[in-house]
Every structure is written in C-alpha cells, then in structure tokens.
C-alpha cells in the first residue's frame, strides 16, 4: 500500500498569515469564541484530519516595552479549548501545547489524562520549553533559564509525567481501585519531588501522544528521546529529507525505531482555482500587512532590530548572522532571503505569510503534487496544515485538496480507528517504557 499522509490542522488565532485576520472573509471579531473553534474543528474532522493543534502563549507581544497592537490575538489556553472541542467532535485528535519550563509535572499529567479520558483517547501534548524568554517575567522569574538547562528539566518532567500515567494499571478504572493496581511514584530529582499516584486513571492511550517542536540542538536530542510526533518548519525538500533521516538516526541511539515517530512539517497553502487567482490572493494579503507589523515581526523572528533601516534595502543577512547565532527558524529565513535577494520589506512580506514555515501559492492539484512528492520522497510523514486565513482557506483545502489526495490513494477515505494513536499508527506505550529509554541517555 502507498504510504499514507497524516494531516494536522494548526490553528492560529485569527489566521496564519499575519494579515489574514484582515481578510474580508475572516470573522476577526469572533476568534475568541466557541463558534469559531467549533466550526473549524468540525471542518477539519469532515476532512478526516488526524489532529487539531493549538499552541500556547505565555507572554504578550511587545515592542519597546509596550503592548503591540494591530496583531492577531494570542492563543487561548490550549487544554481548556481542547476540552470543549472534545465534546463537539468524535474522531479528531486534540493536541495542545504546554511548557515544561513554567509548569509542574503532577499538574500537567492530570490535565492531559483528563483530556484523554474526556475525548476517548484523542489527546496529544506538544511539549515545549518555551521559545520566548520574556515569559519568565510572568512566572516570577527575572531571568529565563538557559536553553540547555530547560531541556534537562524537560526530560525529568517527562520522566515524572510518564511515571504518573503508568502509576495505575490499565483496566483499574474509575475510582474503585484495588491498591494492588496502584504503583505510587517516588521521585526525588534535581527539579521535582513527587510522591504518590495520579488521581486520574491511566489515560485511554496509555499516555497522550507526545509531540515535540523544538529546533535547537538540545531540542532535537530531546525529540529523539521523547517525540512520537515532530512538528517542524522545513521549506526545502532535500533539507527536510535530511532532517527526517537524522531524526531517525538520533532515535536509534535511544533504542527507538523510525515507525515510532511521525514527522510533520508546517505547510501554509494559499489556494486559488487557478494559479493567477492564487497569486492575486497573495498580493491582496500582502497589501493588508501593516508595514510596521511586518518589520516588527521580522525583527522579532531574527532577534535583530530593523526598525531604523530603509525597508527597500537588501536584508543585511551577513550583519544579522554576525550579530547573533540565528535560531533554526531564523537561519532558514536568512538562507531564503539571501537566495532570493530579498529586501527588508520583501523579507517582511515573506515572514508575514507563515512565519518561517513552508508557504505555497497555487491550485489544489499543484498542492497535492507537492504533498505527494514530499511524502513519497521521504521528506515527511505528513503535514501540519496552516491555512493563511480561516475558515475559507480551510474549506478549500477540505473540499478540493483532500479528495484529490484520496483519489491518489495518499489519504484515508474515513477514520479507521478512534484514538489519536490509531490515526497516527503509533503503538500504545507499555508502562515503564520511558524509564527504559532513559537508560540509553549518557550520564
Ligand atoms: C509547529 C510549531 C509550533 C510551535 N508552538 C509553540 C508554542 O505553542 N509555544 C512555544 O513556546 N513554542 C512553540 N514552538 C517553538 C518550539 O517548540 C520552541 O522552539 C521551543 O520551545 C524552544 O526550543 P528550541 O530552542 O529547541 O527551539 C513551536 C514550533 C513549531 C515548529
């Protein structure tokens, strides 16, 4: 059988294109309301998507110390949102982001176990260490923790969470538990001390599906140990292939096989019935980008102030690289800008499209061609679809791209299972699996 695509719907408040919320078809005023999220989730489920994915936001976007408007709103609390969506969907996987840097494992383990039970086994956790250092100011810390230390804490965090999920035997359901089926955790580590069992029965899926999206070297190592799905930003076919192969190689060091992970790069498709229409839409959206917002977004993403530069100058790629080692996402953007000889305003328009993610402009057939090539060429196992604006561009995807993928035998006609693990083809973890993998971590 031909390899099958996995599809995530990556929701972003208002839109993925920075000006998408200004598109006349977007219900910008209602993106914090249940109707908006319910309609989008149900549309994704009609399109047989594997999962719905929402990020977290632990800080407000600022410029020069002041809240910066003219942007979309930030993410709603992911687990609260997904809990509500679990009651208006029946099959769609529900993946939410929470940070290991700013929470406690007991609290998070109970939240995801609850979501997994309420949804009948559809929960996933995007485990992040938090990209924005300013978040520390909202969590009683003057200074953000060093990146490598955050991942050491993250590993201990997953050790505790998986021990808690495994602390009650499968089948010891409800609150009438035989003590013989309870295995209290006794964890005394560098960051956490946890004693006792989880107050919630073992999740339907054993553990929620563990997702990882960090791109730094310690982030990639963490993914090799922890991730069952990897969300990543990849814009180049060959680089994406190499990324997937190197993830598999790293996993092997922890005794893990390639079929234990699903790699899903972001893909933001702007679709038109003809190429010309898609390009016209792109121009229309580009014209809606407020110039100050574009330069702000570019400066934030590159970690380099471009506010005082002439927007018509070429992006000073070498100067930016020399000032600070770019993050993985910034590096991708700089490489693209240098290759295409983009000006500062041209780079702002590029990043406005989908931040550092792969953006596509064209017809549904052309998009299906790209997705087929990436899947069959070994560059991914699926995509995290990022509509430039909601709900209209998602409707076009569901109505025109999904049937085309199905016709080519690349995507399910209907759900075959009920849980997110079943959709993604991931095994249910047996108790103690994570602690066995930890034995492979060098001291
Ligand atoms: C698709 C995708 C979604 C992400 N969502 C979040 C998010 O919601 N919250 C967050 O703090 N970071 C998010 N990130 C960023 C990373 O996980 C972030 O880079 C990480 O937490 C910091 O680790 P790193 O330095 O290894 O990249 C996302 C990344 C990708 C590719």
From TrEMBL:
CDD domains: Nitrilotriacetate_monoxgenase. Residues 19-373 form the Luciferase-like domain. FMN binds at residues 56, 97, 151, 216. Keywords: Flavoprotein, FMN, Monooxygenase, Oxidoreductase. GO terms for molecular function: monooxygenase activity; oxidoreductase activity, acting on paired donors, with incorporation or reduction of molecular oxygen. It comes from the Bacteria. The keyword Oxidoreductase applies. InterPro entries: Diverse_substr_monoxygenases, Luciferase-like_dom, Luciferase-like_sf, NTA_MOA. Coiled coil: none annotated. Belongs to the NtaA/SnaA/DszA monooxygenase family. This is FMN-dependent oxidoreductase, nitrilotriacetate monooxygenase family. It comes from Paraburkholderia caballeronis.
